[in-house]
Design brief:
The protein is an alpha+beta fold. It is built from 10 helices and 10 strands. It has a 6-stranded mixed sheet with strand order 6-8-5-9-7-10. It has a 4-stranded mixed sheet with strand order 1-4-2-3. It binds magnesium ion.
Length: about 325
C-alpha cells in the first residue's frame, strides 16, 4: 500500500514539526517565523538526486541525514545557527512507505541533534528518479555572516578536519578494496557529513571569508578567490589527512579535487593565528593552515619546495 500525500504528511512529517509553533502543525498554507531583534535570516537550498548525489540503495535514514547535513553545512559556512527547514520530495513508485518511514526517522534524529524543525514542504510523484530538496533557514547576528568575498592578500588559508575521506568513501562503495574498519570510517564520511556549525559560529569576526568544501578544495577555494578578487597558494605538504586516507593511493587527488568533505575552508589575517589555534583545541577537531592569499587570480597548489602540483581536474562538476 502506498500512502497518499495527506497520509504521508499526517503520519510521517507532522511529528517533525512538533515544537515549532510557527509551523502551525503543517496544517496551513505557510509557516510563520518571528526573528529576535538584531538577527538576520540565512537561507540556503540543496537538492539531491538518486544516483547523482547519493546511491539509490543507500539507507534511507542516512539519505535524510545527508540531505539535512549538506544544507546545515551551508549555514556553517555563513556562521549561522540552524532554525528550521522545508522539504520537497518527488518520489517514483519504487519508493515505498517503508522507505519514507525510515527517511522521516533519519530527519527526526538529525533535526534533534542539530536543533531545527520541519516547518513545511511539498510531496509529489515523479516518473523520473527520486529527487529530494531541502531549504534550510538559519539566523545570524545582523551584519556578522561570513561570506566568500572578504579574503585579502597576505592572509592565511585554513581548513577544518581532514580532506579526501568522503571521495575515497565513494570509491569504496564502488569497489575499492580496504579493510572493514577503514570502509566503515570512509563510507561514513561520504554518507554522513559533519556540518561544522560550532566552528562557523566561532569564526564570526575571526575569518575574513569562508566556504564549505562540497565540490573539492581547489574548486571551493577558487570560489573564494573569484568573489574576493585574489589568488590562493596551497602547500600540498600541509593538507590534513585522516590516518585511514593517508594510506590510500590517490589520497592527495581526493583531498584536492574530491567533493563531499563538508569541512570549512576559510581565510583569516595572520594576527588571528593564536585565536584560531585556541579554537581548534576547544572544538575537538583539527583546523590546519594550508596556504596563503596573494594578489592575482586562481588557485595554485605547490609542493613544499615551491614546485607547482599538476591538477588533473578541478572538483566535481554537477553539469
Ligand atoms: Mg556551500
Amino acid at each position: 500500500m502506498t500512502l497518499g500525500e495527506f497520509d504521508l504528511i499526517d503520519r510521517l512529517l507532522k511529528p517533525l514539526a512538533q515544537g515549532f509553533p510557527g509551523a502551525l502543525n503543517l496544517a496551513d498554507d505557510a509557516a510563520l517565523i518571528d526573528l529576535p531583534p538584531g538577527r538576520q535570516l540565512v537561507v540556503a537550498k540543496d537538492a539531491v538526486v538518486a544516483d547523482v548525489h547519493f546511491l539509490a540503495d543507500d539507507p534511507p535514514d542516512l539519505v535524510a541525514g545527508k540531505l539535512l547535513r549538506v544544507n546545515l553545512s551551508d549555514l556553517a559556512a555563513m556562521g549561522a545557527e540552524p532554525l528550521a527547514y522545508l522539504t520537497a520530495i518527488a518520489r517514483p513508485t519504487s519508493i515505498n512507505d517503508a522507505w519514507l518511514q525510515r527517511f522521516a526517522a533519519g530527519l527526526l534524529a538529525d533535526q534533534q541533534r542539530f536543533g531545527c524543525h520541519l516547518i513545511g514542504g511539498d510531496t509529489t510523484s515523479t516518473t523520473g528518479p527520486l529527487v529530494l530538496s531541502l531549504t534550510i533557514l538559519g539566523t545570524v547576528p545582523t551584519g556578522r555572516a561570513l561570506t566568500r568575498s572578504g579574503a585579502r592578500p597576505g592572509e592565511d588559508v585554513w581548513v577544518s578536519g581532514t580532506l579526501g575521506d568522503a571521495a575515497i568513501g565513494l570509491r569504496v562503495l564502488r569497489g575499492l578494496a580496504v579493510t572493514e574498519d577503514e570502509a566503515l570510517e570512509l563510507v561514513g564520511r561520504y554518507r554522513t557529513p559533519r556540518p561544522r556549525l560550532a566552528l562557523g559560529q566561532s569564526l564570526r569576526g575571526l575569518a575574513s571569508s569562508a566556504i564549505d568544501v562540497s565540490d573539492g578544495l581547489v574548486a571551493d577555494l577558487g570560489h573564494i578567490c573569484t568573489e574576493s578578487k585574489v589568488a590562493a597558494v596551497v602547500d600540498a605538504s600541509l593538507l590534513p589527512f585522516s590516518e585511514v586516507a593517508r594510506g590510500v593511493p590517490g589520497a592527495r587527488e581526493a583531498a584536492l579535487a574530491g567533493g563531499d568533505d563538508y569541512e570549512l575552508l576559510f581565510t583569516a589575517p595572520v594576527a588571528g593565528r593564536p585565536a584560531i589555534e585556541a579554537l581548534a583545541a576547544q572544538i575537538g577537531h583539527g583546523i590546519t593552515r594550508i596556504g596563503h592569499i596573494e594578489q592575482g587570480a586562481g588557485v595554485t597548489v605547490v609542493e613544499a619546495d615551491g614546485q607547482p602540483v599538476a591538477l588533473p581536474r578541478h572538483g566535481w562538476r554537477h553539469f
